[in-house]
């Protein structure tokens, strides 16, 4: 018995499912890497500013500088710089996460769009076969 069009459709569906699985795996691995890199970046940022905050009093240890307001201004600048870098890290993480979501959406769209095309082609084949049978019966 010869294989019909169904065998070819099964191969395409299997191929689509395999590529979908690999695509999801790649996206999941990238998401895991992003999580690890974000945690590492936050840790490094925290340590960087802890070290800067520890070294700050030594820079204003001269007579009159501690009470002059310069140290307070330097602490405020350090705090604002820390916030700015934290927001930058958060923005990078959010952008990377949205890129991964776009990739996931495109992958799903490819897979399910292909399935819909297969279903439409199968419907057209069934319709043309029905029309042929009706023509033969007349």
Task: Characterise this structure.
- With 138 residues, the protein is mainly alpha-helical.
- 89% of the residues lie in helices and 0% in strands.
- It has two helices and no strands.
- The chain has helices spanning 5-59, 70-137.
Could you give a short account of the major beta sheet?
A: none
Estimated structural class? mainly alpha
Low-confidence regions: none
Identify the quaternary structure here: single chain
The average pLDDT is 81
Bulk shape: rod-shaped
Helix proportion range: over 70%
Q: How much of the sequence is in beta strands?
A: under 5%
Number of strands: 0
Cα gyration radius (Å): 31 Å
What distance separates the N and C termini?
Answer: 29 Å
Order of helical and strand elements = HH
Number of helices: 2
Structure summarized in a few sentences:
With 138 residues, the chain is an all-alpha fold. The chain has two helices and no strands. The protein is rod-shaped and about 110 Å long.
Secondary-structure blueprint:
Layout: H1 5-59, H2 70-137
Write out key terms for the chains shown:
mainly alpha; 138 residues
